[in-house]
Design a protein that fits this description.
Elements (H helix, E strand, L loop, with lengths): L3 E7 L5 E7 L12 E6 L4 E6 L4 E6 L5 E6 L3 E6 L4 E6 L3 E5 L4 E5 L8 E7 L4 E6 L4 E6 L6 E5 L3 E5 L5 E6 L3 E7 L21 E6 L5 E6 L5 E5 L7 E4 L5 E8 L2 E8 L4 E8 L9 E4 L2 E11 L2 E11 L4 E6 L8 E6 L5 E6 L4 E5 L1
Antiparallel strand pairs: 1-2, 2-3, 3-4, 5-6, 6-7, 7-8, 9-10, 10-11, 11-12, 13-14, 14-15, 15-16, 17-18, 18-19, 19-20, 21-22, 22-23, 23-24, 25-26, 26-27, 27-28, 29-30, 30-31
């Protein structure tokens, strides 16, 4: 890339890769300004253009027809698939583009003020709604089908929104929320509606920190009711859910190592754990695609001393099905990775300006 990679976005179809870069004099051939470019998964540059301001975040619709970027000059810009600007409005936020209904969600994260959790716009950039708050927002996640949204506020408050982005329920938990994850929006499958049989799936999983040392994953049902909890075997910073609401996956990087684990519901137990026993200078992340978990890790060896950025790919049972050694300079780190659901296109950006594309 012509500069350091700051953001990646991948259409759900896997046909388009959106890349934002910024000027970095340490990178040979770096442009002197921020760039936004669109690539095919075959490595063809479809278009590239100079950004008017430093780019905060980017998003692309599942079908690749709408591109949205947010800049640090408080601009939220909509573009078509050819890179032509079609609208511009105020918005310092992290954008999400929903396919059905056609909505743009402007999430007011750490860079924005705490008085609004998110704004809702149509695909023409017109603001049609929003959700005001009086506390800082600490977590924000859509379900895999994009039909449900959950947020967490300071003080342990969790709110689930329905497909119309209206609050379905609120729940106050003991402790502070670190992260959360949302399962698909279909109704829970009861073994028998006429009996008190346990619910076979959770709706929202919430990573809660009771104090500096104690964490647990709380499982909540369709009405926000408590369904039980699991205590992770290592410090956790990211939480994700299987679409069916039967497994919670979590990742952490700490003195205890870099680990990924799966906890099953309704068994309420950690069923597998994989990773690296050493810590990493930079935390990675996990992404989910149908039947697979993708985890960015750093592998270190002492004799000879080496540091490798890798991506481990696990099935839902925790079996490692692939191990990617990322091509990069010796001093570079894994910066970001994204996946497309169909097919399993996998895109990696490293902080030496390299973009790599795989198909699994």
């Amino acid at each position: 890339m012509k500069g350091a990679i700051s953001n990646l976005a991948l259409s759900r179809s896997g046909k388009q890769i959106l890349v934002a870069t910024y000027a970095d004099s340490d990178i040979p051939g770096s442009a002197k300004h921020a760039l936004l470019s669109l690539w095919s998964t075959q490595g063809k540059l479809l278009w590239e253009q100079k950004a008017d301001a430093p780019i905060k975040d980017i998003a692309i619709s599942p079908d690749g027809q709408l591109i949205v970027l947010s800049t640090y000059l408080d601009d939220l810009i909509g573009m078509d698939a050819r890179g032509r600007k079609i609208w511009n409005t105020a918005g310092l936020c992290k954008p999400y583009v929903l396919q059905e209904p056609k909505r743009v969600i402007c999430y007011h994260d750490d860079d924005a003020g705490p008085d609004v959790a998110f704004d809702v716009l149509d695909w023409d950039g017109k603001k049609i709604g929003g959700f005001p708050i009086q506390k800082d927002i600490v977590a924000f996640k859509f379900s895999d089908d994009q039909k449900s949204l959950a947020i967490a506020l300071n003080g342990g408050e969790v709110i689930l929104f329905d497909s119309e982005l209206k609050p379905a329920w609120r729940r106050k938990l003991d402790g502070e929320v670190v992260d959360l994850a949302v399962a698909g929006s279909e109704q829970s499958n009861l073994i028998s509606t006429a009996s008190p049989s346990p619910i076979s799936r959770f709706r929202v999983a919430v990573l809660v920190r009771a104090d500096r040392k104690t964490q647990q994953v709380e499982f909540l049902g369709d009405q926000g009711q408590s369904l039980g909890h699991v205590i992770p075997s290592f410090p956790v910073e990211q939480l994700e859910s299987s679409p069916d609401g039967q497994i919670a996956f979590y990742y952490g990087n700490s003195f205890a190592g870099q680990w990924v684990a799966g906890a099953s519901f309704p068994e309420l137990k950690e069923i597998w754990k994989q990773g690296e026993p050493s810590s990493s200078r930079y935390s990675g992340s996990i992404n989910l695609s149908p039947g697979l978990i993708w985890a960015g890790v750093e592998h270190r060896s002492e004799k000879p001393i080496q540091r490798e950025s890798r991506v481990f790919i696990f099935d839902l049972n925790g079996n490692k099905v692939h191990d990617l050694d990322l091509p990069k300079d010796d001093t570079a780190y894994l910066f970001s990775h994204r996946i497309a659901m169909v097919p399993n296109w996998f895109v990696v950006g490293t902080d030496d300006a390299k973009l790599s594309v795989y198909q699994f």
